[in-house]
Amino acid sequence: MDDKAKEKLLKKAYDLAFKYEEQYGGCGQCVVAALQDTFDMPNPDVFKSLSGYAGGGAVVGDAGCGAYVAGILFLSGLKGRQRDNFADPERVRFESFANARKLHRKFIDDFGSVLCREMQMKLFGRPPTRSRRDEEIPRCRRPYDPCPDVCGKAARWAADIAITDGLIAEEKLNKLAK
Length: 178
Prior knowledge:
Blueprint: H1 3-24, H2 27-38, H3 44-49, H4 66-78, H5 92-111, H6 116-124, H7 147-164, H8 170-176
Helix pairs in contact: 1-2, 1-7, 2-4, 2-7, 4-5, 4-7, 5-7
């Protein structure tokens, strides 16, 4: 895949995740939806399974960033241990660990953490808080909400790992980039 075609797919992943987070919220679902749409790999069950994973899980902010978790989930879905081969004598899960570590490194280099609470402290200058009314982390739309950018970057980074590491067939990538 040439650099121009690759960049087109990476930009699409970023733009979709940014748009979805800005419009709908729910970082985990936004990232996985963007990756599924970028690579034409819909999986409604995976999307649905991330319903409760936003705002650091259950919107309480004390676990991993949903964008990070979704990126790992997507990459592991491309190359991961199969349930019907649970013993994994081929050690495929270790390839999944390596891919997840690549995404982890990007988060650490850019945000200093993969934990929602720590990222929100850095990006918002405050920890996530819960409202009494609906137990949601309030959206901080003024003056700047970094969550769409976090989702965009997570989708772009996961897409880059998938492309660079050959987790998606070259023929499919070339078709998608047209």
